[in-house]
Amino acid sequence: MRTVLLVDMDYFYVACEELRHPEIKGVPAVVGMDPKGGSGRGVVMTCNYEARKFGIRSGMPISMAYRIKPDAIYLPLDYYYYDRISAKVMAAIKPLAGKFEQVSVDEAYMDVSAKIAHASEALEYAMTVQKRVLDDVGIKCSIGIGPNKLIAKMACESAKPAGIKQVKEEEVGEFLKDMEVGKLYGIGEKTAQKLRKLGYSTVGQLSKANMMRMMELFGAFGAEMVRNAKGIDDSAVVENYGIKSIGREFTFDSDTDSGMEIEARIGELGRGVSLEVSKSKKSFKTITLKLRYADFTEHLHSKSIKVTDSPEMLISTAVNLYRQNADRSRKIRKIGVRVSNLVDYSGQKKII
Ligand code: DCP
Ligand code: MG
Ligand code: MG
User: Among 12, 50, 85, which is best to mutate for testing ligand 1, by the most ligand atoms less than 8 A from CB?
Assistant: First the structure.
């Protein structure tokens, strides 16, 4: 039997900002694009729990956040700073894991099965992890504990903020039974709506769905949903798996069809991504350009090349993806550049 922890920092970007601006503690604060007195574009990246009390959320247009709470503190994004804090967090907790898998800037799975004699010791172990983050970095995190990654992840959601929630193997059924289907890992709002129409409003109901029928309706994802609804997840905590992709996005102040302006931005985003790639000592194989048009339709264009860490290759590939794929008759609202299929730089040297 395994014991898996999912450790996730609370309101991470704002928590980072609190470290260097302690005066924002306890005051509604938002990190995101400049609201520009309500006319700003782009979104809220995150906000603290004081701001969440007013209904502000990650991903919400910054202009909407501003309408809700114009007197909140609005801070610009500083990815490099958050990455540095993230590295400190990961370095602090990695030694406490048997197997350690970072999954995002503020989140990691820890398989602690080898560190404790029995699942009943997990709660105390998680408290040690929480305290380590607070002592070494000065920020708070929440921890979900489960017999697998899926349950640990969902337990963490219900532990937030600054909490710990353990779901033991024998409690999995009860934990999932009455959970709203949209809360199940991997299910977005659209799928949740479809499922509700089919009569599956709770995870418990979905767990009893006919596998074949779900596969007819949703393909392989249908089978996965039913497995998840049963709380089944055999995937291992993969050591050194690291972050799967590195990307940056930019929303234009006003929608644009100027190729020059767009290509200049792609160049800038590409340089930012490259810098981060080189800091994490990675090389990459796949470059993805995201184009969001003025009408909010979004298109992803990807190209895989020989593994490289060259900023020039990254930028020229992204620019070519734009030249080859963009619909020039429509204006663009937002662009993104991302690299994936990351390998350790040392790994790449061996390949060559
Ligand atoms: N983030 C983002 N875009 C989103 C959501 C989050 O850029 N739509 C960024 C900002 C977050 C960070 O990633 O600080 C971590 O994301 P989480 O989902 O873990 O959210 P938070 O840590 O901000 O809040 P929570 O306390 O709910 O974990
Ligand atoms: Mg978080
Ligand atoms: Mg997270």
Answer: 12
